[in-house]
């Protein structure tokens, strides 16, 4: 008997093998049924493709099961890590700040003394000695005004004063003459009265001498009144002369104080009018040895502002310089419209580095009335439950503590209530941090060092 193998072959080979098998079984019927056997008996199925498919399916199922098992194990590990995860956080202490409160506000420099110089004498500018930017001392001549009309008025007034003085002398002489007449009239009246009493003179003569005595007395009183009128005229005329003499001194316009000319509106030959206070000034002079810095202090800090509080003035265009100043005056009362306190800081300016009209930043050192606890602003948690901070309690347990903010100082928060000095707060708390969570606390210096090391490693790589 012939044994079939699983040798590969085509369909024709399988048919030939089947025919050979039929011949070996019954050689006598080979001729009769050979052809029919070839077409009636099917070839046996191939096993190799089924085996390959089975192995592939088993491998796929095994690989999928292996990946599923790995995923399941990874999820279990992740769940365990999430349950047992203890975040590492930076911490910082809550401190009591009893030092002065630093408050920076905008301000503007102003001249300590400012004067608009007007003309008091009417005339023409005969001479000008200063210009914009000229530094002057008190009493320095700025301009000279030619005022001939004023000079003539002064001379006329002085002449009239001389006339009144002469009239006074005449009046005084009349008084002396009247006094002599009164003396003579008194003597004559006394003599005539005696003679009339003895009968040596008539009664009429006695009455005439008495009338003469009364007339002389009236004449003396009139002369004395003329003296008083003359003296009053002299006094009035002397005032006129003094006024005109003073006006003539205004022909020379001088500096009222040490300063710098910041504006000039006249030149030689210009006509100026005296006592025109509402017109254009001749010059504007500012004193810059000491400057005033005007600052509007808000109500929140106005309570601590008083005379003598130290201040620092900085100008953006001079970043390398700081000017020391002192609060010298304030309005005491706040403006009701904006609730600010008008405050002036005096700043010494011997080298004229500062100029009037500069926009500056003024930093006050305001004494604290009540020391308060401060924390870094990065420790604040603001959510639906309000403002809170995470306090590390018992070494590694977090407690979310509600706080009340008194003042926001930028990098730090001044608290009115909620914390005590020395407590440890979490900086930049994670979003999922809950009350009672456990953390690994690290100081800010340690965290900063770790960040620097990571940065250096990244740079090296």
UniProtKB/TrEMBL annotation:
Q: Which SUPFAM superfamilies match?
A: HlyD-like secretion proteins (SSF111369)
List compositional bias (Low complexity) regions by residue number.
450-461
Which stretches make up the Multidrug resistance protein MdtA-like C-terminal permuted SH3 domain? 373-427
Q: Which residues form the Multidrug resistance protein MdtA-like barrel-sandwich hybrid domain?
A: 114-273
Any idea where this protein resides? Cell envelope
Q: Taxonomically, which superkingdom?
A: Bacteria
What are the entry keywords?
Answer: Coiled coil, Transport
Q: What family is this protein classified in?
A: Belongs to the membrane fusion protein (MFP) (TC 8.A.1) family.
Instruction: Name the NCBIfam families on file.
Output: RND_mfp
Q: Write the protein's name.
A: Efflux transporter periplasmic adaptor subunit
- In its UniProt entry, the species of origin is given as Methylobacterium oryzae
């Amino acid at each position: 008997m012939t044994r079939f193998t699983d040798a590969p072959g085509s369909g024709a080979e399988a048919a030939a093998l089947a025919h050979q098998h039929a011949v070996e079984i019954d050689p006598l019927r080979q001729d009769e049924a050979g052809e029919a056997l070839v077409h009636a008996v099917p070839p046996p199925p191939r096993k190799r493709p089924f085996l390959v498919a089975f192995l592939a399916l088993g491998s796929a199922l095994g690989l999928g099961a292996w990946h599923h098992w790995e995923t399941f194990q990874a999820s279990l590990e992740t769940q365990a890590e999430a349950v047992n995860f203890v975040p590492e956080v930076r911490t910082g202490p809550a401190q009591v700040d009893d030092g002065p409160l630093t408050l920076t506000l905008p301000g503007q420099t102003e001249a300590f003394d400012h004067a608009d110089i007007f003309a008091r004498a009417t005339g023409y500018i005969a001479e000008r000695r200063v210009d914009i930017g000229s530094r002057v001392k008190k009493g320095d001549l700025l301009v000279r005004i030619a005022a001939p009309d004023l000079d003539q008025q002064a001379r006329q007034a002085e002449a009239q004063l001389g006339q009144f003085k002469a009239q006074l002398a005449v009046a005084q002489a009349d008084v002396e003459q009247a006094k002599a007449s009164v003396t003579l009239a008194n003597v004559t009246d006394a003599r005539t009265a005696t003679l009339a009493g003895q009968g040596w003179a008539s009664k009429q003569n006695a009455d005439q001498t008495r009338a003469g005595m009364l007339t002389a007395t009236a004449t003396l009183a009139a002369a004395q009144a003329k003296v008083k009128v003359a003296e009053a005229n002299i006094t009035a005329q002397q005032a006129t002369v003094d006024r005109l003499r003073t006006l003539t001194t205004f022909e020379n316009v001088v500096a009222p104080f040490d300063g710098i000319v910041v504006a000039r509106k006249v030149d030689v030959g210009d006509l100026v009018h005296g006592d025109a206070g509402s017109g254009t000034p001749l010059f504007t002079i500012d004193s810059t040895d000491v400057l005033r810095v005007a600052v509007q202090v808000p109500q929140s800090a106005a309570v601590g502002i008083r005379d003598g509080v130290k201040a620092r003035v900085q100008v953006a265009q001079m970043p390398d310089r700081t000017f020391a100043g002192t609060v010298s005056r304030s309005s005491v009362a706040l403006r009701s419209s904006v609730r600010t306190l008008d405050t002036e800081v005096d700043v010494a300016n011997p080298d004229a580095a500062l100029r009037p009209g500069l926009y500056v930043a003024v930093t006050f050192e305001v004494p604290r009335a009540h020391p308060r606890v401060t924390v870094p602003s990065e420790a604040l948690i603001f959510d639906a439950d309000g403002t809170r901070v995470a306090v590390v309690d018992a070494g590694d347990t977090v407690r979310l503590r509600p706080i009340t903010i008194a003042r926001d100082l930028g990098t730090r928060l001044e608290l009115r209530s909620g914390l005590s000095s020395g407590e440890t707060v979490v900086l930049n708390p994670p979003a999922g941090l809950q009350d009672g969570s456990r953390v690994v606390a690290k100081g800010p210096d340690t965290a900063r060092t770790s960040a620097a090391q990571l940065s250096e490693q990244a740079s090296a790589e």
